[in-house]
Amino acid sequence: MSSRPWRSVALAVLMIAVVGGIVVVASGLWSVLWGDDGSRIEGLSEEVPWEQAIVVPTVAPPTTQPPEPVFDLAQHSTSDPASPWVIVNKQHPIATGYEPADLVDVDGARVRAAVEPDLRAMVEAAGVDGARLVVRSGYRSYTEQAGARAAVEARRGFAHAERYSARPGFSEHQTGLAVDVDSGSQPSCNLQTCFTRTAEGAWLAERAWEFGFVVRYTEQNTAVTGYAPEGWHLRWVGRELTGHLHAEGIGSLEEALGVSGGPEYAAG
Ligand SMILES: [Zn+2]
Questions:
Q1: Calpha distance 39→231 (Å, rounded)
Q2: β-strand pairing of 213-217 with 178-183
Q3: In angstroms, rounded to a whole number, what is the distance separating the alpha carbons of residues 45 and 240?
Q4: 129 C-alpha vs ligand 1 centroid, how far in Å?
Q5: Where are the domains of the chain?
Q6: Domain 103-257 has CATH 3.30.360.10
Q7: H helices then E strands: how many in the chain?
Q8: At 124, is the secondary structure helix, strand, or coil?
Q9: How close is the Cα of 247 to the center of ligand 1, in Å?
């Protein structure tokens, strides 16, 4: 016998406590893992008491879907020469006597008043990026267009003129919404095919839309517009429409507004 019997008692109590603890922990684990009735609990798919399992189907009220924001392509006329969205092409001439009432001067070129702020902002933004846009020409009257066309024809022949220069009465320049720009960095490419490869041509192709302008005649839309590519010829239609064209990847005003075009002149 030990001379200190209290130690044996204490040891026994400790043993009971340890064994008891193990049993409690084990049974707790058991019920967590297997449930009180021994059926394995699968994640959260615990059986739902039947009272709660009866789901009264709630009839969803007829949902009035919020209308998709639709860009209104009919908000401006495409035939009124004073409309910002007027389409002038070989199928759609402009009235011989039309002259815009609100022409203003921008760097020696005349444009409609609505065009001015965007044109100035664009030239400035291009300059910040190192592209030196030089405004070359804007509005041309019917008579001026007749002169310009005759000059191209005399210099390059009828066939060339047909591809590059509108007949009088068919030019966008008569709307006051079209602008030709030159390259400040490479003037030898002014009005030339190589303009698109100048810093200015590349900048316009990328960013003119941000200022409400489209590069009107591109390699991709020649069949639709009826003109050979002219990276320098810009048409102002406003930022709302150019934003739409950009977002939708639409390559011409004719396609966007559903207006006919092409290389053949309307029978007149
Ligand atoms: Zn032009």
A1: 76
A2: unpaired
A3: 53
A4: 24
A5: 5-43, 103-257
A6: no
A7: 9, 6
A8: helix
A9: 25
Cα dihedral sign, 148-154-158-161: negative
| Residue positions counted in the chain | 268
Query: Is beta strand 109-112 parallel, antiparallel or unpaired with respect to 103-106?
Result: antiparallel
Query: What is the 75 CA–ligand 1 centroid distance (Å)?
Result: 26
Locus of tokens 């990328």: 206
pTM: 0.73
3-state SS class at 158: helix
One digit per residue, the tens of pLDDT, for the chain of length 268 reads: 445 666 776 676 666 666 665 655 555 554 555 545 544 444 444 555 556 656 666 776 667 777 777 889 999 999 999 999 999 999 999 999 999 999 999 999 999 999 999 999 999 999 999 999 999 999 999 999 999 999 999 999 999 998 888 899 999 999 999 999 999 999 999 999 999 999 999 999 999 999 999 999 999 999 999 999 999 999 999 999 999 999 999 999 999 999 999 999 988 6
Q: Are 83 and 77 in contact (CB under 8 A)?
A: yes
CA of 244 to the centre of ligand 1 (A): 23
Q: How many CB atoms lie within 10 A of CB 149?
A: 21
Tokens of 99: 């002259």
